[in-house]
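Final report, Chapter 2: Outcomes

The project's central promise was a pipeline that accepts a single protein chain and returns its three-dimensional structure in a standardized token representation, suitable for archiving and comparison. That pipeline is now operational. To close this chapter, we reproduce one record exactly as it appears in the project archive, with the input sequence first and the structure output second.
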Amino acid sequence: MLLYLVKRIASLFIVLLAMSFIVFCLQSIIPADPARALAGPTAPVETLEKVRQQLGLNDPMPVQYGRFLYRLTQGDLGTSVRTRQPVSDDVRKYLPASAELGAFAMLLGVGLAAVLAVLQNSLRRSGAIRLTLLAAGSTPIFLSALLLVYFFWFKLGWLPGAGRLSIRRFVGPTGFNFIDGFLVGRPEIALDALAHLILPGIALALPIAVAVGRSLNGSLHDVMKQTYIRTGRGKGLSETAVVLRHGLRNAASAPLSMIGLQVGLLFGNLLIVERVFSWPGLGLYMVQAFASSDLSAVLGVSMVFGAFYILVNMVVEVSQSLADPRIGL
């Protein structure tokens, strides 16, 4: 285990270094000028040149990249052109919102995937379930998000379709409003936070449920044909007990790999869903950074997402080894 952790941590730094180089080089391709965005569209040429000199944009690219790496080792992700604040401060401010939404969507998606896979393997006629999965998997996430907003918020008014809370200026100890509501002894805040989580959470969870559910269904279909499954049935165990005790764990390897892939897609989908639902997280922050040519913010958030994705895949590999001892680290 110790050797595995050392290798994974080393690979984490190598991947982050490669990712930082690729993203940094994209600045020379993107037709955007951070100095113009900072100085303003009507700033004179002299002011624009001073800003470029202050930002170091006139230096050669290797010098700029070396300066960026040095700041990165100090925990400095640069200064946002749009907010005029350090990007690291902005990340700490908006990360809890995205983490709360992402965790809720992942739990909901994995739960739906398990239910759908078990139903498909238990029911003799599951054509309706397959058709539903096909329709949900074929719908673009921006369209499903807009449909959820239109029907459940605009037309029916059942659930809120924008923001994190109906109560403004609430700051909890953890930044997770659902948990903070209980910690401060105000369950109405927790319920309000849960209501705001449902629609964007469903929009993010649908692709996860379809992908993981299909993977789990295929693995479970093969596992249920094994001899130890017939032995369990011969002992008089119910079908539910056979599936839960012997089927799901042995079929977990492929779905866990799919979950790791879905985390990467989740980061991209956050940009769309947070924009549609006006969710004040890193996804909306990054969309606004793109619109403002805020390359420091884009690069900083990309590094954060990349590091988190590698850590999640490390957890997935450990979970696969625990679920199936035949899989070594």
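Archive annotation: Residues 153 and 159 are 5 Å apart (CA to CA).
This record, like all others produced under the grant, will remain available to the consortium after the project formally closes.
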